[in-house]
Amino acid sequence: MSSRHTETELAALAKQLKSWASELGFAHLGISPASNAAHADKLRDWLARGYHGDMEYMSRHEALRRDPDALLPGTVRVISARMDYQPVAADAQQLLNTPSRAYISRYALGRDYHKLIRKRLAQLAERLGEHAGQHHRAFVDSAPVLERGFAEQAGLGWIGKNSMLINSRAGSWFFLGEIYTDVPLPVDPPQETGHCGSCRACLDDCPTGAIVAPYQVDARRCISYLTIELKDAIPEEFRRAMGNRVFGCDDCQLVCPWNKFAQISGEADFSPRHQLDDSSLLSLFLWSEEQFLNRTAGSPIRRIGYQRWLRNLAVGLGNAPYHADILAGLKKQRPLAEPMVAEHIDWALAQQQSRAEVLARSR
After folding, report:
1. Are strands 103-104 and 136-139 parallel, antiparallel or unpaired?
2. Is 346 designated active site?
């Protein structure tokens, strides 16, 4: 195509992009304008309330989220793509109901999605560049992008009361990625909003009450934030509510009625590795640092590091039913832990010892 394209040519290119995206494993692709003022205003309000906690980068890069042109000059369209990730794995609810087992968020059971999706988006952007435009850039959590806002505008779903993007045909078990482009492709209509209706399942089920109001999540209370983003001690007020959730939390998705339409992913990379979908808390807690590094290579879990991994698991063990092996395992790791982690181990030991005393009195 030449540098100036007819509407017919641009429409044909948009259709071709969606076909290419499907070939690359994406379940849905949509195109939106590069302006996103309404969602940017909501972000500003969220930041003003302090709901981002220690995620300082959220406020530091707010201006870039508001203005795509600041990230890629000349951007006029945002292409949003969805890739389903729900794996074949041990039953999530059964795991949550078995307090001695470790619950790891479904998205983190396999390989890190960032590289896989970024590579495929880059391929898609390259194909686009062969036909039109000069400036294209792919993003997968790699830059300050209002991805859910753009995806909503592009017709990939609506932002639900749990702040997740929900699709009426696929639920919410999917990843998002974007391409900024200077090609004025025709935009897609947004999905109708308001499909959450009067449902309060996610608000009522959140273990820590992090969904403080419909469409408002206080990250400082969210188990995903506490186990992944927070670098310091987990506040004691949330430890019991964490249960056996040691990396992320899926509760608001597990209870969402729309997820009955979710599709199992065909991507082998999203399948569970090292039995992370069905392991005991204690077995994971007893990993050495070398084992942790080896078994989380290429996994999103690696980003929290060994000490925070132990911190999270210690809380899970503190919530588990009493067992002599758990008590022994906690004592074994205690001398090796850094001070912040040691405090969590001490908390867990106190919980286990308290249960042991109750059991002794009941005999």
Report:
1. unpaired
2. no
pLDDT mean values, one per 10 residues, the chain (363 residues): 76 97 97 92 94 90 86 95 97 97 97 94 95 90 88 96 96 97 96 86 98 97 98 98 98 98 95 97 98 96 97 98 97 96 98 93 81
DSSP conformation letters of 94-136: HHHT-TTBPEE-GGGSSS-HHHHHHHHHHHHHHHHHHHS-S-E
Query: What pLDDT is recorded for position 1?
Result: 43
Find the catalytic residue in 45, 67, 84, 141. 141
Dig out the tokens for 329 from the structure: 């395992």
Q: Which tokens go with 128?
A: 């686009």
Residues 127, 27: Cα–Cα separation, whole Å = 18
**Total residues belonging to the chain:** 363
Please give the DSSP secondary-structure letter assigned to residue 226: I
Return the domain boundaries, the chain: 7-90+106-181, 201-262+275-356
* CA–CA distances in Å: residue 74 to residues 77, 135, 151, 214: 9, 7, 20, 36
Query: One-letter amino acid identity for 119?
Result: K
Contacts of 170 (CB under 8 A, 6+ apart): 27, 28, 82, 84, 157, 261, 262, 263
Q: Is the pTM of this model over 0.90?
A: yes
DSSP-assigned beta bridge partners for residue 33 = 77
